[in-house]
Amino acid sequence: MRRPVPERPGPGQESVWDYPRPPRLEQYAGSLVIELGGVEVARTTRGWRVLETSHPPTYYLPRSAFLEGSLREAAGSSWCEWKGQASYLDLVGGDAVAPRAAWTYLTPTAGFEPIAGAIAVMAAATDRCLVDDEVVEPQPGGFYGGWVTSTVVGPFKGIPGSTGW
């Protein structure tokens, strides 16, 4: 299996290869915006980032940042070895519905208690997500929920050949 060669971060950038495993949770005090169906469904200037080796940050927004009616309970759940049991939500904006595009940990494991009830969103399922007014790229591969901005360098988990990382 080929090992990834981390990109060298430039000024003001972070390498996802410097993020820890197990992941770290940190507060984020910047602008986070989510749009779907031509509607701004969420906006906040406070949230959290989960930082894990080889992954771009996954952003969690307080539930109060979401427009009323933009979140709808969805069937199913999954298990994260670090955060516990996730519950899914459909994201609704305008005439658009993104099924199971959002998730939350209602009772996260130790160390992740601050994100209890906070919402993360798959950027690929939205019109666009922004971090500090920069439109994000979804984490490659369609499975992970990281948001790629110009402030992070990879390579990122999810690209072809990264299964064993």
UniProtKB/TrEMBL annotation:
Residue ranges occupied by any DUF427 domain in the UniProt entry: 34-123
Domain of life (superkingdom): Bacteria
Gene3D superfamilies recorded: Domain of unknown function (DUF427) (2.170.150.40)
InterPro entries: DUF427 (IPR007361), DUF427_sf (IPR038694)
Descriptive protein name: Uncharacterized conserved protein, DUF427 family
Record Pfam families: NTP_transf_9
Disordered: annotated segments: 1-20
Organism of this sequence: Nocardioides lianchengensis
